[in-house]
Amino acid sequence: MKTLILAEHNGTEINPSIYQAVTAAQFWNLPIEVLVAGSNISAVAQQAASITGVSRVLHADAEHLSHQLAEDLAKLIAATGREYKVILAAHSSFSRNILPRAAALLDVAMISDVLEIQADNTYVRSVYAGNIYTTIQSADAIQVLTIHGSNYPAAGAIENKAHIQQLEAPPAQRKSRWVSETRSQSDRPALSSAKVVVSGGRSLGSAASFEQVLAPLAEKLGAALGATRAAVDAGFAPNDIQVGQTGVVVAPELYIAVGVSGAVQHTYGMRDSKIVVAINQDPDAPIFQVADYGLVADLFEAVPALTAAVQ
Ligand SMILES: Cc1cc2nc3c(=O)[nH]c(=O)nc-3n(C[C@H](O)[C@H](O)[C@H](O)COP(=O)(O)OP(=O)(O)OC[C@H]3O[C@@H](n4cnc5c(N)ncnc54)[C@H](O)[C@@H]3O)c2cc1C
Prior knowledge:
Strand order of the largest sheet: 7-6-5-8-4-1-2-3-9
Number of strands: 14
Bound molecules: flavin-adenine dinucleotide
Structural class: alpha/beta
Radius of gyration: 20 Å
Number of helices: 9
Distance between the termini: 54 Å
Strand content: 25-35%
Order of helices and strands: EHEHEHEHEEEEEEHEHEHEHEH
């Protein structure tokens, strides 16, 4: 039996979280294969083949996979999935869109956001936004799971590349089709792998002030911008920078929370940060309970002053 990792990529580069997924997959001591699906993505397949510990890359290259629709990728995984004991991915909105569908097609359970692998079918995961840890066992023949990437060190890269095998994709499904997409263009580092994150809440008041107040600080620190769900729902920030239980989980060296209340659903996504700095005008805001450094101040004064002070 073998382990299969679903690779997330942007068409040219593999997502850094895959390196952590490879480390997690080593628990089973089985050959590790990586599935790279898309269109014109041979560079991504090459990159996957150079990850230490990967024994083979399955390269599914087809026009109808170019937008990586969940229904198509789930069908592709289900078509080959019975050869594997474990089907694994890094926990992200990409994989949690696809793996539950693949698990359903294979008629097995889906276990999401695993914090720790205790045995080959026993996992620790958190519920209630990280307030309770549960240990669960799956009796299924195929274990389908996503892992909490920041709990695993990234695998390295090697010169001797693994074998890349072409994989024929099943025909396109007709349930969904790609119509269009709007991507926020940014030169800032990717949120999920950034070393510094500057996050803002609803208190920023508008999309314009979110950008005007936070972007200069982020630029000086080489940081990614993050947001609370309340800020996203209010239209101040795009959905793909939401940090939290239903957003992105980050693990930077430094997390600066600006006008963020500290609701558990938000702190779930930032709790792996090494140092947390909070700026909030309410001294009783829950964010101060998880912050290493707290400043009780009006953000509209404190952030420009901090930005000016950073060399
Ligand atoms: C199922 C579920 C999933 C959720 N998932 C997420 C998630 O993934 N991510 C997430 O973030 N939330 C999530 N939420 C929402 C979460 O519960 C909170 O509502 C949200 O995080 C609050 O966002 P906020 O801190 O921006 O807003 P608020 O709660 O409105 O807090 C604003 C804060 O800003 C401070 N403030 C106001 N003005 C200023 C100023 N001028 N200067 C300094 N400070 C100021 C206030 O004191 C307050 O603490 C989820 C909720 C549910 C039910």
